[in-house]
Amino acid sequence: MDSTQNPKFLTSYLFFAFLLASSNLLTFFISTSFDSSCTFNQQTNTPSTVLAKPTPKYEAIQESSDNTQTDENLPSEFLAFTSPQKLPRGFNKNFNSDEIMPPIGRPCTLFRDLLDRYMSYNVNGSCPDDELLAQKLLLKGCEPLPRRRCHPAAPQEYVEPYPFPESQWRTPSDFSVVWTAFTCKNYDCLVNRARNQRAFDDCKDCFDLNGRERRRWTAKNGAGLDFSIDEVLAVKKAGTIRIGLDIGGGVATFAVRMRERNVTILTTSMNLNGPFNSFIASRGVIPLYVSISQRLPFFDNTLDIVHSMHVLSNWIPETLLHFLLFDIYRVLRPGGLFWLDHFFCVGDQFEKVYAPLIESIGFNKVKWIVGRKFDRGPELNEMYLSALLMKPLKNSW
Ligand SMILES: *[C@@H]1O[C@H](CO)[C@@H](O)[C@H](O)[C@H]1NC(C)=O
Ligand SMILES: *[C@@H]1O[C@H](CO)[C@@H](O)[C@H](O)[C@H]1NC(C)=O
């Protein structure tokens, strides 16, 4: 039973899920393109809207003609970034090519209006203060976003983080955040919004580090759906859970608690009406700005643990969820743990759809607790699953 849950928090899980589950993969920097020649071709201080097509050096050498419709009138900076670029040292065995094609999400060009606005800026100048636009584009599937050659919006007088470990539990300075995209314009507003604002927001009370956030996962023995971190870690030999990922991890309290136990956790998060990524970084743990749609940026069989609370739920299309669960399985090492924390669905969805789907991936069940959720009324027949799953140590392939 889960009667202690805050109903507002729960009703917002949809938004929560949607926002929190993302981060842009870092595109790995290919240093070879810079170390041999200093003549990188920067077009500066020219509005991209008036830039001619990229210089011939940048321009795509079209080998196939199927780009011709989509390339029409695309922003010049977009073409500059995405067009195949000649490797300065010629043919490279690793690429099996003499050129490289920087990646963007396939749907980027489907949203021309947003893309045109996003890629209109002065090269070498200041980027527009357009985080809302960027996130909207990303959530529509333009992920990873194209890179831009401009300086991102930043506070006029940036205030550096508190020293670690103080930074973990102290509200950072308002001057560490660009507030333009958010309803709240300071941390005081965010800390108090659970009390003062009626509007629904993701993770509405998460910024209050002295509230519920401080107690999460810390019980001596977790009860029912609420497992504790220590009971989960105790499933494995001490010290063998060292690195992992929290998908849609709010303000990254999970990562902070794990760090106290010498476990390094990266936290994916969107910035849905709150500066989640800035806040996570201020606390001294690592935010990953990638959505739940993107392939996880880790190699196969590498992570010791993947955790996700509230985000993986019935708002996610079934096929996407199927791919996502397989991706979690992929990145976990054999013997690694998948802590599916408060998966939400309604009534017979659980028996008919989600239990079979989750069970089909190939994890072993360590814990599997199903509970009704009553906060919005029993007639809604809402359900939670909290599960601790393990990738098989042998024959996981
Ligand atoms: C880019 O802008 C900076 C000022 O922000 C300037 O100092 C620099 O010369 C510019 N670079 C080029 C190549 O124009
Ligand atoms: C974390 O690591 C440090 C240094 O290796 C060690 O002193 C400390 O006891 C560890 N803490 C826990 C909770 O394992």
TrEMBL record:
UniProt entry keywords in alphabetical sequence: Glycoprotein, Membrane, Methyltransferase, Signal-anchor, Transferase, Transmembrane, Transmembrane helix
CDD domains to which the protein is assigned, alphabetical: AdoMet_MTases (cd02440)
GO cellular component, one term: endomembrane system
Topology within the bilayer: Single-pass membrane protein; Single-pass type II membrane protein
Keyword set includes Methyltransferase: yes
Keyword Glycoprotein tagged: yes
Gene Ontology BP terms: methylation
Highest taxon in the source lineage: Eukaryota
Transmembrane annotation, as ranges: 12-34
InterPro entries: Prob_Methyltransferase, Put_SAM_MeTrfase, SAM-dependent_MTases_sf
GO molecular function terms noted in the UniProt entry: methyltransferase activity
Chief location of this protein within or outside the cell: membrane
Record localization: Endomembrane system; Membrane
A matching Pfam family: Methyltransf_29
Family statement: Belongs to the methyltransferase superfamily.
Name used for this protein in its record: Methyltransferase type 11 domain-containing protein
Species classification: Eukaryota, Viridiplantae, Streptophyta, Embryophyta, Tracheophyta
